Amino acid sequence: MTNPFSYGGVVGNGEFCNRAQELADLKDLISSAGRCFVYAERRMGKSSLILRVLGELPKKQFLPVYIDLWPTDGTLAFATAIARATTAAAETKTTRLLELGKQLFGRLRPSVSLDEMGQPTVEFGVEGRTASKSELSEVLAAPQILAEKTGKIVVMVFDEFQQIAGYEDGLAERQIRSSIQHHHRVAYIFLGSRKHLLQSMFLDESRPLYRSAMHYPIGSIKTKHWLPFIAQRFRDANKAIDKQLIEQLCEQTQGHPFYTQHLCHVLWSMVGPCGAADAAMLKAAVSELLRRESHAYVILWESLTKNEQRFLRGLADSDSSRKPFSADFTRRYGLRAASNAQRAAESLVAGDIIEREESSYVIIDRFLRLWIRGLLL
After folding, report:
1. What b-and-e string marks burial along 270-288, b requiring 16 or more CB atoms within 10 Å of the CB?
2. Strands 110-114 and 354-357
3. How would residue 245 be classed by pLDDT, with cut points 50, 70 and 90?
4. Is the separation of the CB atoms in 328 and 341 below 8 Å?
5. Residues with Cβ < 8 Å from 360, sequence gap 6 or more?
6. Residue 76: what are its φ and ψ, rounded to 5°?
7. Helix axes 223-235 and 257-270, enclosed angle (nearest 10)
8. Positive or negative, the Cα torsion across 278, 279, 281, 282?
């Protein structure tokens, strides 16, 4: 039997745990052509979530356009990514594809060719790294044109939206704000995993996108939702796992979808036919995962300053009060002063090792957290 626990890619419907409230909320927002800034830690499942939302929208009422900005490095790549995704979503026939491309994105000099699978795809003749203001304006006007032409709500999803913060100028941000404020029957979803960069875009008064979209954080999945999900997949394979062990497993991963599914994947493979998972197997599964990652963790650890290491030890310690700038925390973990803790935290956030969470911080890689806890022992 194929291992039922999936991780590392987009998760399909059968491998999707809960998120019922998030699915409903995002569908409601899209139906009202709203604008939403969805942020979460890396591997939290936001892409899987939004793709499932898009897949469940009635095709007669909605035209979804999904744009992955991860590969983009400038405004021209940004513009062509939008143009390519938009034309592909709106039309599939070769002759009409070129016609639509010329109608919406004439400044980018579109042409049609066949991909490796023999399917028509739009290419663009412009070169370089930066797009002109007129080219960006043309691209960003396309969703409204399509909404008027089709009578549908056009749903523009920008995944890894924080990439635009690394472009050479702020033109993309300014043009997005200038364009979308006049759009109707167009929903905008901005997804991102580097929360501090995204929040600076949407919460900094000096930035063009300040308060231009509502905020919707995606967090870990509660243990009560993991309990039936994990137990059922063990039962389906004539294997057993009890409630207490699932709770222990979720404590190790803090309910993070990627790390929970990954640990379940390894544990499930250790249990033989008609067998039952136990605490020794869970411990062995964790040890195996940490063994695989140990080399990378050692390199990372040795690259950190002593205060950064001390700060991480404090976050990883489950017995800690988790108030990282308190006198008790700084004294207990050798940081000496709150200022040292603050500098360490800022550096670790910039390096995407920790993320702000309410009044404290969380170590993004849950297995790194377990590895550090092993150092404490």
Report:
1. bbeeeeebbeebbeebbee
2. unpaired
3. very high
4. no
5. 315, 322, 323, 324
6. -70, -45
7. 30
8. positive
Residue 153 CB coordination number (10 Å): 20
Every domain of the chain with CATH number 1.10.10 lies at 304-377
- H or E element in which residue 22 lies: helix 20-31
Structure-token pair, residue 92? 């599939």
pTM: 0.89
Nearest Cα residue to 351 out of 131, 135, 196, 232: 196
SS3 content of the chain, % helix, strand, coil (to 5): 55, 15, 35
For domain 304-377, give the fold. Answer: Arc Repressor Mutant, subunit A (1.10.10)
pLDDT digits (tens, 9 = 90+) for 264-300: 999 999 999 999 999 999 999 999 999 999 999 999 9
The CATH fold assigned to 221-291 is Helicase, Ruva Protein; domain 3 (1.10.8)
- C-alpha 303/C-alpha 297 separation (Å) is 10
Cβ of 362: how many Cβ atoms within 10 Å? 18
Displacement of CA 237 from its chain's centroid (Å): 31
- Say if domain 19-217 classifies as CATH 1.10.10.10: no
> What is the per-residue pLDDT across 113-157, written as a single tens digit (0 to 9) for each?
777 777 777 888 888 888 999 999 999 999 999 999 999 999 999
Delimit the CATH 1.10.8 region(s) of the chain. 221-291
Residue 155 β-bridge partners: 64, 187
